[in-house]
Amino acid sequence: MKPNISTEVGAIKIERPTMLASGILGISLEVFDRLYKEGAGALVTKSLSKEPWEGYPNPTVVGVKAGYLNAVGLSNPGAPYFAKMISSNKTVPIIVSLVGSIPEDFDFMIKQFENVKILGYELNLSCPHVEKVGLEVGDDPELVHKIVKSVKTQSKVPVIAKVGLGSSDYLETVRVACESGVDAITAINTIRAMAIDVETTRPILSHKIGGLSGSAIKPIAVRCVYEISSQFDIPIIGCGGVSSWEDSIEFILAGASAVQVGSALVDKWVGVFSEINDGISKYMEKKNFSKIKDMIGIAKKP
Amino acid sequence: MQRNPDIPTIVKIEKVIDETPTVRTLVFSDEVLSNVLPGQFAMVWIPGINELPMSVMISREKGKAAFTVRKHGFASTELYSLKVGEQLGVRGPYGSSFTIKQGKILLVGGGTGLVPLIRLLTFLKKTDDVTLLIGSKTKNEVFFEKMANQILEHNKHAVIVVTEDGSYGKTGLVTEAMENLFSQIKFDVVYTCGPEKMMHKVVQLASSKNIYVEASIERMMKCGMGICGSCCFGEVLACRDGTVFDGKYLLTNKEFGYTHRNKAGILENY
């Protein structure tokens, strides 16, 4: 029998375990629709703010050895515009990523999506290159508690917290988010990093410091998923350097119920989702796993 | 070792050519960019200032490439103002290229949209019959006419300049001149690059005569490699699926000729 690659991240049910990561290609419904048809199990939007943000000047994304460095600056058209844009959505499984500084920001944005068909929200508590949001929120347990609590009261759909490696212990952020009622965790975001061009002696990114993504961070992300899975009873979405079915399986074995793909689109373009899905399916067949659930976290077995 | 196209490679400006009072060509040595396909672009980093997508201009010297820039906004004015000896970072090449066809060929360009078309000329066969229409507002904004004639000197060819104010060449819009040509010549293929309203008209005209047509489109670009999403154009990404698309596709894309996204990703009208 062909293995079943559908998966459940708590109450979020998706046909395939590969999601588009937030920040990647996420500003139009037509592109979401295309990626869904290409095999993505769910599409996470760019992080939306209350108002439109232009982001930083270029260079905003450049390559480094074994990965990419970005400080796009969370450019996005704002939650009200975006909600209107996807209001006609009927078929595409969309997870809306939100970024803000205080509970009221999130309340405002959730109101915009009240009548829009979405799978859930992903709270960006981990963007490493914009002030007063992202990691600066994630590093403040009290604020995480207030925001998650408030969002959970407002939202009719599941709420995921996306955590990353900031200046405080990320496991503390996970603990607070779990205690405040979050439904799932996405781990991890890009990691604060920079690149300097030696010829011109200049930092390359206009923002100077950005976030590192791609293969370079995958072992760190696998470790985080493993740690969260070992310490908390919460569904996890693995994110960070996923570029193949082997990477995806590794995250699942560490404890992830699904994975998110971002930087790998540079090399593999939109075919990356079906390539990973097919690889996962073949692996399951070979190893006699009939469903994703049977593989989640089994690397933790003593 | 092959270089990583996504990491800026530093090049030095060797020559600056004034094309018009507002347009300059900056020439530099770079083997990779000297060999790109017509329509491909580079992300050009002005260190400490900004980074811009630029179609790669040819140089008539081996191993060299160039960027032709009009001073317009902040970043393009900074690029325009660079001097011989100053450095640039280049990433790429990125994007698709024009499909090289043969026969009776028409190219329609406006402004710096001529850049990929001039490169395309160098890929054509000597047996091709080539017509290049150069559209411009006025005489002192016309450039690349002489270079196009030089590249095409062994071809049967015509380089026709059309100015809106009639101060040079034919008078009117380049698309009007194109309609006139269509009544005299049956072209096998049309290539266009320039302002989107112009390209929209060119694609409509060619398509109405069942002539294969390709256009190179421009959108707000940040990463250049297909991940940031800034340049999304309907369901495609200008930087990755394009920048060159055929007319049949373009006429199905409801944004073509009408809207583009700003830095925040909000659709704005042309």
Mean of pLDDT of chain A: 97
Largest sheet of chain A: 8 strands, parallel, barrel
> What's the CATH class of chain A, please?
Alpha Beta
How far is it from the N-terminal to the C-terminal residue of chain B, by CA? Answer: 44 Å
Please tally the β strands of chain B and state the result: 18
Describe the structure.
The complex is a heterodimer of chains A (302) and B (270). Chain A has 302 residues and is α/β, with parallel strands linked by helices. Chain A is built from 10 helices and 16 strands. In chain A, strands 3-4-7-8-9-10-15-16 form an 8-stranded parallel β-barrel, surrounded by 6 helices. Chain A has a 4-stranded antiparallel sheet with strand order 5-6-14-11, with no helix packed on it. In chain A, α5 (141-154) packs parallel to α6. The longest helix of chain A is centred in the last third of the chain and has 16 residues, at 272-287. Chain B has 270 residues and is an alpha/beta fold. Chain B is 20% helix and 36% strand. Chain B is built from 7 helices and 18 strands. In chain B, β5 and β6 form a beta hairpin. Chain B has 2 domains: 9-94, Elongation Factor Tu (Ef-tu), domain 3 (Beta Barrel); 104-269, Nucleotide-binding domain of ferredoxin-NADP reductase (FNR) module (Rossmann fold), CATH 3.40.50.80. In chain B, α5 (174-184) runs parallel beside α6 (196-208). Classes of the chains: A alpha/beta (302), B alpha/beta (270). Chain A binds chain B through residues 23-28, 30-31, 33-34, 46, 52-55, 57-65, 68, 70, 72, 75-78, 81, 197, 199-200, 202, 204, 206, 262-263, 265-266, 269, and chain B through 4-8, 10, 43, 45, 47-48, 50-52, 75, 87, 89, 91, 222-230, 232, 234-237, 240, 261-266.
